[in-house]
Amino acid sequence: MQGFRAVRSKDNRGVTDASPPSSELTQRIQHAIAQAGGWIGFERFMAMALYEPGLGYYTNTLQKFGAMPSSGSDFVTAPGLTPLFGQTLAVQVQQALQATGTAEVWEFGAGTGALALQLLDNLGDAVERYTIIDLSGTLRERQAQTLQAHAHQVRWLDAWPDAMDGVVVGNEVLDAMPVQLLQRTGGVWHERGVVVQGDAFAWQDRITDLRPPLEVDGEHDYLTEIHPQAEAFMASLAERLLAGQGGAAFFLDYGFPESEYFHPQRHMGTVMCHQLHQADTDPLVAVGQKDITAHVNFTGVALAGQNAGLQVLGYTSQARFLLNLDLAERMAASPLAERSQAQRLLNEHEMGELFKVVGFATTDAWQAQGFAAGDRSHRL
Q1: Domain tally, the chain
Q2: Residue-averaged pLDDT of the chain
């Protein structure tokens, strides 16, 4: 997930200077590094920084979601900007429920519960059960408060069931899945990992056989990410939807198709951190106190779902997706303040273009309304 006032401050190539680490999370990561022989890949570091039980960013008690830094929050997501987001997405969810003959909605990483509330308020009895899969006990408590009016419909799980049916929604979920960092230096590819240097974390590169899915033109030094966890997530989701009665899934996030993701000019990677609505590119400091994200390779996500048996319903920009679902008409009927917030969902320089939507289903026997115009599946 990310804040909107994101400005790169520096790249993450050198040794990072840090104040002396003292938190239990930092000590635990240091121990993991020592146990692994003095080096761990960034993927493991990111996983611990975000998800270490009770200590990681998404599992500790820090405030995360909110519109302003004065609240102690780090970023705001689309449902927190305006309820028009969830009202509009509900049109697509309802169509998918009807097309798949199912009555359950699944949400991964439900944040404050704002999107769940917006969907449930608009879908009503079309949803027999709304299942949230979330690792954060603190966020689960906040979600329960938000969703009190729909308590009879909502349940929480902290692990996958063997089979699923219904419609899956993930808003800014894929970007928080740990990634591996690959660094090309002097024409040689390395995996970037983390070591302890003095009392701080630092980068260290090791030669690797890993490669990006596309060859990166040029001979210049180049930092990028690969996304095995996001792709494994899609394969697991496909397996469970196909083991159940079927369904559909929609993921909204920031990212690119692989031809843009691995463009020669994108040589600094996409890893970003977010704290108090400010962005930086140094995940090795303030560990557990700020979000760490990487942009989504939508080609990899689409192929992972497709290879596991799902059909790709479509892929487009968030702006086009929401306009296909009649957001403009809802905006026209809303007060000025609401319209101005909703406009941020569409503006090309904010969320409209950087954010994309990809849809999947267990059958391609129906056309998803959100992709009716402007489908870019051919560019994946």
Answers
A1: 1
A2: 91
